[in-house]
Amino acid sequence: MQLNFRQVRQELPRCPSRRAKTPYVTGRCVHLRTTYRAPVARAQVSEENALEQAFESALLEAQAKGGARQRPAHAYPEEPEAEDERERVFLVGAAIKGEQKKYTYDVHESVEELGRLAETAGLKVMGSTFQMLEAPNMSTYIGSGKVAEVARAVAALDVETVIFDDELSPGQLRNLERALGGTGPDGLPVDVRVCDRTALILDIFSQRAQTREGQLQVELAQTEYQLPRLTKMWSHLDRVGGGGQVKGTGEKQIEIDKRLLRDKAAQLRRELEAVRTHRRQYREKRSSTPIPVVGICGYTNAGKSTLLNTITGAGVLAEDQLFATLDPTTRRVRLKGNKEILLSDTVGFIQKLPTELVAAFRATLEEIQDASIILHVVDISHPNAAAQNEAVMQVLTELGVDHIPIVTAWNKIDACSNPDEVRRIAAKRTRTVCISGMTGEGLEQLMEVLGGELEKAMVEVHALLPYSAGDLLNDLHTGGRVKNQEYKEDGVEVTAAAPKSLAGRLHSLGYLLNELEGEEDEDEDEDDGVVLLA
Ligand SMILES: Nc1nc2c(ncn2[C@@H]2O[C@H](COP(=O)(O)OP(=O)(O)OP(=O)(O)O)[C@@H](O)[C@H]2O)c(=O)[nH]1
Ligand SMILES: [Mg+2]
């Protein structure tokens, strides 16, 4: 007996646990998890074992296997009861054998995260499936049997869009759209859109970008993504001007579209350059102030904005949603001893971050490039903390900022089931502090560690400042630590620890009496990921 997906859809809402609402179905089995992270339970459906019965026994099995665990904040939100109009999507993941890294998302988790992304984009997840593969299929990514299975699910669940967890080639997209569409069980044609994780992330970014620069970046990334894939796109992704109302002589529609897209990309690049020049000037002005910058970065939803809010009351949007923050926000914070820093919140990272986006956001992430210290916020209560940590470190390397000292904040300690164990492990690591941006726990210690690291990042200066350069003396007091100052006939002789930028300025003005030290010592500790704790 093959499973009838329409029946699955009709029957399941009557099942007792609302939590097990995203089951996936393969062949004759119904698979489910009662809670996020609970192991999968499956039961076969047969003539004797009706769907509802099979579902019940899978439910019992899943609960016995660990369903008692609490749903963490990042599990699927409860679905609203009311009939909703959201676009209905089905998710497909694939695990390629031999592609396993040291810390990695397994395919379940990756698809689960894809589901969270889809919810963030305002889509309704109807179900999901995945396949273990030796290698991706050249023409359809997944194997033909799996394609047929997804096609059945699409027809039965009234799915409008199928989202793949990995980036698809233009050819694969086309083939899949053709294979998954067709005729539904009711004899009506089924029109299915296929897209991949990259398009979904781009879509979320475009919904959320606030500043002109953010919007331009995303639009450019989308245009570049669309160009080689010029077929059908989501209508709301499709912002290609008029669509070529005037057909050029002998030019095929697709060529017109391509030309329009290319023109649009060029135009976007010009606009972006103008906006960036403006921001660069602002940044240069800022970098001439002596206040060191601490760049907050971390996996999406790690709690970066909450932390900045708690520290500064900045009122940055913090939400239990992926990619709540897209535009950097910077706030001034006073540390103990009256030292000031600039804390800068940035866009979150995610595994399988589309390369288009890394490139597009490179400029925004220059905020991090300027930082004296990177504050890496990790959601240590997340079951995948280790893989997320790895993903962030990878992007930092890609951005060429891995030489900047990193202070790691293990956030959400309040949500850990074993906080003492986590604290014990953190204590063994250098520059790692357990905090809760929510309750404020550990923030004082974090500030202390940041202060200490900033101090280390300073260089010794011995300078003679003419009386006309009083502002520089001021800067040394605000941004650095003055150890000694004597009023001489031709100026003030000071010995101080100063931020590198300020030391450089003193050097270029010819006020320095000492040689500037070379690069600071290499980091002595190797940061090879987080031990899986949760
Ligand atoms: N339990 C607990 N939850 C937290 C803590 N910090 C943040 N959260 C929650 O985690 C979710 C994400 O927080 P944000 O501050 O928006 O995370 P972010 O890293 O800025 O996320 P993006 O901007 O989306 O990348 C929110 O629901 C917060 O309430 C914490 O210390 N403990
Ligand atoms: Mg944020």
From TrEMBL:
GO cellular component terms, semicolon-separated: cytoplasm
Location of this chain's protein in the cell: Cytoplasm
Chain positions covered by the region annotation Disordered: 66-85
One example GO MF annotation: GTP binding
InterPro entries named among the record's database cross-references: G_HFLX_dom, GTP-bd, GTP-bd_M, GTPase_HflX, GTPase_HflX_N, GTPase_HflX_N_sf, HflX_C, P-loop_NTPase
UniProt-listed SUPFAM superfamilies: P-loop containing nucleoside triphosphate hydrolases (SSF52540)
Residue ranges of coiled coil: 251-285
Key words of the record: Coiled coil, Cytoplasm, GTP-binding, Magnesium, Metal-binding, Nucleotide-binding
Ranges for domain Hflx-type G: 292-458
HAMAP family: GTPase_HflX
Name this polypeptide is given: Hflx-type G domain-containing protein
Organism: Chlamydomonas reinhardtii (Chlamydomonas smithii)
